[in-house]
Amino acid sequence: MTPQSSFMVVAPLLPGKVAALRTLLATMNHCPGSVNPDNALVPFGRFDRLHFARFVILEDVTAGDIALYGVKPADFPVYLAFLGDCDGSKQAFIDDLVRRAGEGLRSIFSHCEGFDSGSKLAAWMLEHDKPAAAAYVNWIGRPVRQIVEERALRHFLSANVPRGAGGRANGDPQSIRKHLRDLVEAERSAGRLSLTDPEPTPLGWQVREWLHAVWVPLVLLAALPLMIVALPFLAWKLRRLETTDPEVVYRPPEAQLAKLRVLEDYDVTNQFTALGSVKPGRFRRYAVIVLLLLLDYSCRHIYNRGHLTRVQTIHFARWVLLDDKQRLMFASNYDGSLDSYMDDFINKVAWGLNLVFSNGVGYPRTSWLVVEGARNEQHFKNYLRRHELPTEVWYKAYPGLTAFDLATNTRIREGLEASSATDEQVREWLKLL
């Protein structure tokens, strides 16, 4: 199994360079929101271990909201962020990226503070890599190569199924399956179809995951007595803050919404990037740190096979704390429109949204951390849109495929490669084609 990694290179921009950088990044697109995978700067389409990537300028238009708490807004720099999700280690991928797209990356990062032409690019990128406080992978261990091969397999099988009236498979199910298996074997022998065996799971990754799976519950168990003692105070503090924290939930200006909408719906999958301040005070800071730790644990060890709680439309997502944990950035790659994406979360896991995002300045008011909040649908949607940032460049390695498609294609391959199957199992398998 090939595990996935993520990277996020973050660096402050030089004064006066934002407009020039936006112009340069725009040359990587066919049009706003639609990347050219073979662009001259970073030809993403030539990297067969890259799932998603994006360049986004982190310019926070909501930073002044914290003044509602009587806190002077910080003078945060404008950052460039380069995000990616890849197969294998991020260091190996960045080394490959630098070898093959170093010149383009240098021209982009030349707009950043502390970068010069003599910098060792890979080392500079890793030095500026910002690890996620929590990260979600739809299906840990499904590499790009497998996705591409299983898409081709599905197309081939669908084109060769003998069909009757209504387009359904026609004939004895076992005979059809044997016929299709023979055709696939012939295509593989001729080199026209590939089904690569999984790579061995790296031992180091297995050890790290096992240790992480064990130490987090142990730490929580050790802290349990203290948490029980502190619970009455924490509950009082939480309710006191929840009843006094200001909301900032007005609809964003139409011009801001228009800039965001023009970048959406070029594919069945969309991107989302948002940035906002964490509410002031140690209570909120420690709350978001602990809750992101628990979220990361759940994503790594529980929700790693096609769904995040009840939501099945997310490919990759991450939560990143910035500026000494004063701000939180969220980035995701999801299927469908943004409205359907937000509705999916509101209807299925509004409590989960509240746990983390209610610690952000201006979030719709919650009760006991999990009640209300995102349930106030329009306020929640306004809040997200206010904090959303336009993504300058966004790449997806397998356009046209949803997370549901990826799961279906894997089931098709598993059904084909199974040593045996009952007639009923084959009929259900054929329905997938």
Main features:
433 residues, four-stranded antiparallel sheet, alpha+beta, 12 helices
Verbal overview:
The protein has 433 residues and is of the alpha+beta class. Helices cover 44% and strands 17% of the residues. The chain has 2 domains: 4-141 and 201-396, no CATH class; 144-198 and 402-430, no CATH class. It contains 12 helices and 12 strands. It is globular and about 75 Å long. The two termini are 26 Å apart. Keywords: Membrane, Transmembrane, Transmembrane helix. The chain crosses the membrane at residues 210-234. It comes from Paraburkholderia sacchari. This is Peroxidase.
Strand content: 15-25%
Q: SSE string, helix = H, strand = E?
A: EHEEEEHHEHHHHEHEEHEEHEHH
Profile the largest sheet: 4 strands, antiparallel
Kindly state the percentage of residues in helix: 40-55%
Beta strands, count: 12
Overall geometric form: globular
Given helix and strand content, the structural type is: alpha+beta
- Quick check: average pLDDT? 94
Keywords: Membrane, Transmembrane, Transmembrane helix
Protein name: Peroxidase
Organism: Paraburkholderia sacchari
Transmembrane segments: 210-234
